[in-house]
Design brief:
Belongs to the TRM44 family. By secondary structure, this protein is α+β, with helices and mostly antiparallel strands. It has helices at residues 31-45, 77-101, 116-119, 126-129, 155-170, 197-202, 206-213, 218-225, 254-261, 270-274, and strands at residues 8-10, 48-54, 63-70, 180-182, 185-187, 195-196, 230-233, 236-239.
Length: 296
Amino acid sequence: RSSYSCCYFVLPCCFFDFHGKYSRRQSKKTQYREYLDFVAQVGFVCGFHVEEDCLRIPSTKRVCLIGKNRTYPSTECALIDKQITQYINNRQTCAVVTCDRRVGFNHKDHSDGICKEADSELPENETDTAGTIWMPGFQPREKVEQIRNCASLPRDFVDDVVLNVANLLLNATPQKSCSNIHGGNMNTWNQGESLSLKEVAEHLNKETLKRLKSEYGGLQTLLKNNHQVFEVLNGRVHIRDWRKEKPSTKTKPEVKRRLSAEAFKTRLCWFFIHHPDGCSLPSESCPYAHGTEELR
């Protein structure tokens, strides 16, 4: 219905009608075959020459349907659109009546698919609004899908949230003493405390929370995105201790081992800049740059 020049490709999977789950009507066919025939029927009603093909994919449901050419000239668009509207309204009304009254109707197995009993119950003005309303409540997706995984948030905003949460964890408990040997000197490194996501959220201002709620996953997604600083386990937020990170056990080719040994550092170490005790790792062991001079 988008336009006369529109073509379509569909890979039927889950068994749904316009108004809910698809109800089987033929016991002689498999559920999958019957549903494929129904989807093809929709294509025929919409005025397409429907073609069927089988995809080379590792799935049990790999039959696709393609509509490339119309069965009518462009001058008959208005007439066909009325037929499409009637078809949609009939199937929708049948589904509602069947659900409400628990009464089943006999549907034709041809391309018209018209339910006479339901057709008689359609409001008189239904055909007048058919040209402007396809289905009440239907909301198509936007042409450009909005990115909502916190990746498009301003860098300043993200940095501010990361710093606030880190300071909250560091100040939530008296400093813990952890042995860390750097060249023979014994230092203490504050690991901070772990807090639940709810506790962390309670300490953030309303403006920040409102902005995060518009993103999928909200605060948890933002913290997980900042893998260098935080570790989120079972709904609790921890400051990541890189001394506990296990080195990769995968064997790498010699060339890759040589490259990793040179440590191409493309990001600054957050702990070196912001943590009161600095980074828990020496520069040569840290995967992040301790100062701009180490950036490559």
